[in-house]
Amino acid sequence: MDSYMVFDGLKLQEFVEDDEGFGKYVDEKFEALDKDQNGRLSPKELRPAVAAIGAALGLPAQGSSPDADIIYDQVLNEYFINGKSDGISKEDFRTVLSDILLGVADGLKRDPVSLLTLDGRLLQHYARSPAFEFDAIATFTDFHNSQPSLEIGVANITVEQGMPPASDPWVMEKIVKPAAESCGFRELIINVSAEEFVEALRSVVLEVASRLEKSPVTVAHSKKIYDGKSIQKFVKKKDEVDKVDGVVSEIFKMVEADEGGVLKQNEFNNLVLQILGSLMLQLEGNPITVSSNALVKSSQNDDDSDFLPHL
To answer: Which of the listed residues 45, 72, 142, 205 has the most CB atoms within 10 Å of its CB?
Structure first.
């Protein structure tokens, strides 16, 4: 069966707070980056570390996105323009790493991430189950007057069913399309009946499962449930509500200017709390679940991919 691990940030926090263990980690990484061994990191020497941390935080690789490259450059400029043109000391390096890793840990506490290794067995079981046929027919029915699409059929299969996220271009280009071609489908849009679509989709999915069995992939999976509990905790904490008073006051001034002072400020504040309360009740009765999946690709540069701690 496909395997998974859950990361909730606790181990990462414990690691950073372990002075001896984290100190050894900093020493090792600093020495590996300090190519000229002068005890300080130049922009060129620090760049692999920034790239590795950016990748861990979900940013595109350096050079692949102009927007991401701006972020990478800003991080470097923060240290080498603002008074540190002579390089980064080991103590500065430790402080930066500590802040970043603790920030990641806090994020994982709020929204744990599961790493699922998909090796094709779960997907193969699903493709041969009655549930697959039912889902495939439902997908075919949704096409209405348009031609059936194997791409959409595959995209409707979830990570929980064993399929890597087909929304990822790499999955589509490197796994799904080659699998379809090996099954005789050079085009993913096909003109077939419902029964033929089910069997065509099944053959492609089974071929994907076969490819995953030979080369498993890892997917980072997270799930957020909006059930009103956060709002409930918020409105019960007077100090938290008080923090928002300043923001609410500014909003009220804008509304007052636009509407000619229809509401008094205390009435406006109460209205905001009523809206929050209504949202809380709606979410309690009808929770909203948002799932996200991202393929975890290994870096082409082993030094970069091995930069962050393996816990």
So the answer is: 205
Integer Cα distance of 213 and 208 in angstroms: 9
> Encoding tokens for residue 109?
């506490």
Q: Which residues of 50-67 are buried (b: 16+ CB within 10 A; e: fewer)?
A: bbbbbbeeebebbeeeee
The number of residues in the chain equals 311
Name residue 269's amino acid: N
With a CB cutoff of 8 Å and minimum separation 6, the contacts of 299 are: 52, 55, 61, 305
pLDDT at residue 82 in the model: 55
* Residue 175 in tokens: 């796994």
How many beta carbons lie within 10 A of that of residue 87, not counting itself?
19
Q: What is the mean pLDDT of each run of 10 residues along the chain (311 residues)?
A: 62 87 91 90 82 67 70 69 68 84 73 81 96 96 88 94 91 95 92 94 97 90 67 59 57 54 65 73 72 60 54 58
Is the distance from CB of 43 to CB of 68 less than 8 angstroms? no
Q: Which of 61, 201, 57 is nearest to 123 (CA)?
A: 201
Cβ neighbours around 93 below 10 Å, total: 22
Residue pair 146/156 in contact (Cβ under 8 Å)? The answer is no
For position 99, what pLDDT does the model report?
A: 80
Name which of 12, 301, 295 is nearest 167 in CA terms.
295
Q: What is the SS3 assignment for 155?
A: helix
22: which 2 tokens?
């984290």
Cα three-residue angle 289-292-294, rounded to 5 degrees? 170
> What pTM did the predictor assign?
0.56
